[in-house]
Design goal:
Layout (H helix, E strand, L loop, with lengths): L3 E7 L3 E7 L6 E4 L4 H11 L5 E3 L5 H4 L2 H8 L2 E5 L11 E3 L4 E4 L2 E7 L8 E5 L4 E5 L2 E2 L2 E2 L7 H12 L6 E4 L4 H11 L4 H15 L7 E2 H7 L8 H6 L7 H14 L1
Parallel strand pairs: 3-4, 4-5, 5-6, 10-13
Antiparallel strand pairs: 1-2, 2-3, 7-8, 8-9, 9-10, 11-12, 13-14
């Protein structure tokens, strides 16, 4: 049996995610935005928390770590680059490291930009990507610490993963992202359809995630900064991809 996933809201718009290995019973939380919500999800499923896989140091991703570790004795995994600012770490990782959750294995992808130490977890066999605040559906994270070049390079790494990879993100931001995306990619019929779907889902208070990475490659303008159609739409026809990406990010900051 492949991995089981439990997706739920934490705080206001953070996603909590549990990934469970039925073979061994091990369960990992992707980040720890809120201990209470994570404990409730564990109880719903009857799972035992064995690991917390941290993506970056922001408070809304780590606030629950210490309470969860006290309650469950779980292992905390985080980036070596962030070891000085994430609590209760047991194991540090970097690009190319492999992290096991029972029989499940995730490869670490360094994805700086939102923060300098941000990492993503790719479970290749299960076709699952946990990109937190680097890649959102129809968007990308704000650049709090990294540069546009950092983020564009990170997005290119994630774009290179297989189309059938299922993307999980750190927040339910898809509606805002969709409304922005159509302003910079107005002739994209796939995006138009996705934006309508997102509007319908959110009007029913349903989640917009997960989503296939292949769809994001077609519809997310931040993954298409090297597409001449996007460059033209933002008035940078003939411009290089980094300049186009930078313009997209600045426009989204003001949106």
């Amino acid at each position: 049996m492949s991995a089981l996933i439990e997706l739920f809201l934490c705080r206001t718009d953070n996603f909590g995610v549990l990934i469970h290995d039925p073979l061994t019973g091990h369960t990992a939380a992707i980040d720890a935005p809120e201990a209470e919500a994570i404990n409730a999800a564990l109880a719903r499923r009857g799972w035992r928390l064995s690991d917390i896989l941290v993506t970056h140091h922001h408070a809304d991703h780590v606030e629950g770590i210490e309470a969860l570790k006290t309650a469950h004795g779980c292992r905390v995994v985080a980036a070596t680059a962030d070891a000085h600012r994430i609590p209760a770490i047991d194991e540090t990782v970097k690009e190319g490291s492999i992290v096991s959750v029972g029989a499940l294995k995730a490869e670490i992808i360094d994805t700086p930009g939102h923060t300098v130490g941000h990492i993503s977890y790719w479970f290749a066999d299960e076709k699952l990507l946990f990109a937190a605040d680097t890649l959102f559906s129809l968007g990308c994270g704000r650049l709090f610490e990294g540069t546009p070049a950092d983020m564009w390079d990170s997005l290119l790494k994630l774009r290179a993963l297989p189309d059938d990879t299922m993307l999980y993100c750190g927040h339910e931001y898809t509606l805002s992202n969709a409304r922005f995306a159509v302003t910079v990619d107005p002739f994209n019929k796939a995006l138009e359809a996705r934006a309508a779907e997102v509007e319908a889902l959110r009007s029913q208070h349903k989640f917009t995630l997960p989503v296939r990475l292949g769809a994001e490659k077609r519809e997310n303008p931040f993954l298409r900064a090297d597409d001449p159609a996007i460059a033209k739409a933002v008035g940078l026809e003939g411009g290089d991809a980094l300049a186009v990406f930078t313009e997209l990010r600045e426009r989204k900051n003001r949106f």
